[in-house]
From TrEMBL:
Name of protein: Bet v I/Major latex protein domain-containing protein
Matches recorded under InterPro entries: Bet_v_I/MLP, MLP-like, START-like_dom_sf
SUPFAM superfamilies noted in UniProt: Bet v1-like
Originating organism: Eucalyptus grandis (Flooded gum)
Every Bet v I/Major latex protein domain range: 1-92
Length: 92
């Protein structure tokens, strides 16, 4: 168990980026189908913080499943992705 935090530059207004990753991330397979093949709801829904999602993705030609939930802090405009198991923990 651990924490990974990253700062990076984006070519998008911060508000738009925050909205996309906090509430519209289900569009990711459409934007990057070679990396993310699909996503489905395991618990909750697409927009409620704390909902659990299952992602099908590919890294270096290996298909994996990533289970996550997102914690959203509207006041500070931050989101935290909490990974739940499998390959992602072996990589990071």
């Amino acid at each position: 168990m651990g924490k990974l935090e990253e700062d990076f530059e984006i070519n998008s207004p911060a508000e738009k980026f925050y909205k996309r990753w906090s509430y519209e991330v289900h569009h990711l397979p459409e934007a990057s189908p070679d990396k993310v093949q699909g996503a489905e709801i395991h618990e909750g829904d697409w927009v409620t913080p704390g909902s659990v999602k299952l992602w099908n993705y590919t890294v270096d030609g290996v298909q994996e499943v990533f289970k996550e939930k997102v914690e959203i802090d509207e006041e500070n405009k931050t989101m935290t992705m909490v990974a739940v198991g499998r390959f992602i923990f072996e990589q990071y």
